[in-house]
Specification:
The chain is α+β, with helices and mostly antiparallel strands. The chain is 22% helix and 34% strand. The protein has 2 helices and 5 strands; from the N terminus they run ββαβββα. The protein has helices at residues 29-41, 100-111; strands at 2-5, 16-17, 44-58, 61-74, 84-87. A 3-stranded antiparallel β-sheet has the order 2-1-5, with no helix packed on it. The protein has a two-stranded antiparallel ribbon with strand order 3-4. The N and C termini lie close together (7 Å). The mean pLDDT is 91.
């Protein structure tokens, strides 16, 4: 699984996460997932099936994270809009600093046996 480290400022600054973006008006979650890969690590991906869905609340915000299985079809990951990135195996999740919703997402993916 490819994880990225957020910039040190802002909410969840410096924590590891799956590449993510908020959907813009009229954008499908699948298109948003592909955009996140392009903008954050500079790769083009083929978005496949929904891997996991996680609902979480932060203060007065309700967050729904949708994680998709993807395959890199063009490019090599680089730190475009993150401080660093790394490929991790299932066993490595527990040792990383992750936000609660990202940990829930990785657990959901882990539990379906795809990691």
């Amino acid at each position: 699984v490819l994880l990225v480290k957020r910039p040190p400022h802002g909410l969840w600054g410096g924590l590891w996460e799956l590449p993510r973006r908020a959907c813009i008006v009229g954008e499908t979650p699948e298109d948003c997932s592909a955009r996140a890969a392009r903008e954050i690590v500079g790769v083009s991906v083929a978005v496949q099936q929904l891997a996991a869905k996680v609902k979480h609340s932060v203060m007065h915000y309700a967050i729904t994270l949708l994680g998709f299985d993807t395959t890199i079809v063009r490019g090599t990951p680089s730190a475009v809009d993150c401080t660093e990135f790394r490929w991790v195996q299932d066993k490595e999740f527990d040792g990383l600093a992750l936000s609660a919703p990202q940990r829930q997402m990785l657990e959901a993916v882990r539990n379906r046996g795809k990691v």
